[in-house]
From TrEMBL:
InterPro entries in UniProt: APOBEC/CMP_deaminase_Zn-bd (IPR016192), CMP_dCMP_dom (IPR002125), Cytidine_deaminase-like (IPR016193)
The keyword Secreted appears for this protein: no
Protein's recorded name: CMP/dCMP-type deaminase domain-containing protein
All copies of domain CMP/dCMP-type deaminase, residue ranges: 20-138
Keywords: Metal-binding, Zinc
Species of provenance: Streptomyces aureoversilis
Pfam family, one: dCMP_cyt_deam_1
Amino acid sequence: MVQRESLSLLSNNRWRSRIEHVVSYIHLAIKQAVKSRCRYRFGAVIVKGGRPLAASSNIARNDPRIDYRHASVHAEEAAVRRVTVTRRAIIYVARVNIRGDLMIARPCARCQKVLALAGITWAHFTTSNGLETMRIGA
Ligand SMILES: [Zn+2]
């Protein structure tokens, strides 16, 4: 039953197109994560009106006073800093490990605040077995 409903969703062009967009943008986020030079490799892409506006990896900081937890500018925040108009935008966040496997990339509490302030409404993020979606600032 569930399977039949899923199939009918996939045969609906509007849904198929949306799913294809989600996959293509998360792929862009994965490419950003692969480029990261940090120990934990994250990438983020901000999309608005069906167009990618900004993308970034997380960025290492070189300040020894910063504790390990805050050792990088998170990819979400780095991407937000690269655009001015983020209202009603969607962010795609990916994390890969050293072997290139997808890992959980749920935005942290701090990034969720940054995203909410920027007006970003949804986040799609990788997990170790696929994708999850969360509402921002709800
Ligand atoms: Zn974060």
